[in-house]
Write a structure and sequence with these properties.
SH3 type barrels; OB fold (Dihydrolipoamide Acetyltransferase, E2P); 3 domains; five-stranded antiparallel β-sheet; mainly beta; elongation factor; protein biosynthesis; 1 helix; cytoplasm; 191 residues; Elongation factor P; flat
Length: 191
C-alpha cells in the first residue's frame, strides 16, 4: 500500500496522484484562517505529468493523496522521427518511445547518445527530465564587432548544433563548445 500524503505536507517537486493522474507540485501556498473554526487551505500550482498542463487547485490541509506509481530510469537518446522520440533504457535495454507532445521543446537540448531520466507511470513512459546542463557546439553566430556594446546589450544570438537559438556573450565564436542551462535555455560558460 502506497503511503498517503497530506496536502499540507506537499513540497516543491513532490509527485502526487490526484483523480488517478500523476502531478508534480510546482509551488504551494498555505492560507491559515483568521476566524475560529476556519479551515486551513493549501493552494497548489501543479503540473499534470501526462499532458504537461499547469493548473492551480486549492485543497483542504487534511486532503490526502496517494504517491503515484512513478519511476525514473536512465535512458540514452537514440533518434526522433514523425512518430516520436526513441530512448534506450540503460538497465533493461528496452526501447522507450515518447510522443512529440511528451517531448515538448526538449529536443532543442538533446544530442544522440545523451543520458536523460525518462519518467514512467504504471510502467509506461510519460516524459523526461533533462540534465541540469548540457554541452553543445555553436554552429553559427555573428562575429563580434568592436564597439558593439552601444546598445547596452553585450550578447548576440547563436544557433547551436541542435537547432536551438540562445543568447551568448560576444566572445563566443563558431565551433566553440558551450555549457547551456536546460531549464532557462541560457548560456552558462565555455566548455
Amino acid at each position: 500500500m502506497a503511503a498517503l500524503l497530506d496536502a499540507i505536507e506537499l513540497k516543491r517537486k513532490n509527485f502526487f496522484e490526484f483523480e488517478g493522474v500523476p502531478y508534480r507540485c510546482l509551488d504551494k501556498d498555505i492560507s491559515t484562517p483568521t476566524a475560529r473554526g476556519g479551515q486551513t487551505l493549501v493552494r497548489v500550482k501543479m503540473r499534470n505529468m501526462l499532458t504537461g498542463a499547469v493548473m492551480d487547485k486549492t485543497f483542504k490541509a487534511e486532503d490526502k493523496f496517494k504517491e503515484p506509481d512513478l519511476e525514473s530510469v536512465d535512458a540514452s537518446y537514440l533518434y526522433s522521427d514523425g512518430d516520436g522520440s526513441y530512448f534506450l533504457d540503460q538497465t533493461t535495454f528496452e526501447t522507450l518511445t515518447l510522443s512529440q507532445e511528451m517531448m515538448g521543446d526538449a529536443l532543442e537540448m538533446l544530442l544522440e547518445g545523451m543520458i536523460v531520466q525518462v519518467n514512467k507511470f504504471n510502467g509506461n513512459p510519460i516524459g523526461l527530465d533533462l540534465p541540469i546542463q548540457v554541452t553543445l557546439t555553436v554552429e553559427y553566430t555573428e562575429p563580434a564587432v568592436r564597439g558593439d556594446t552601444s546598445s547596452g546589450s553585450v550578447t548576440k544570438v547563436a544557433r547551436l548544433e541542435t537547432g536551438a537559438e540562445i543568447r551568448v556573450p560576444l566572445f563566443v565564436k563558431e565551433g566553440e563548445k558551450i555549457i547551456v542551462n536546460t531549464d532557462s535555455r541560457e548560456f552558462s560558460s565555455r566548455a
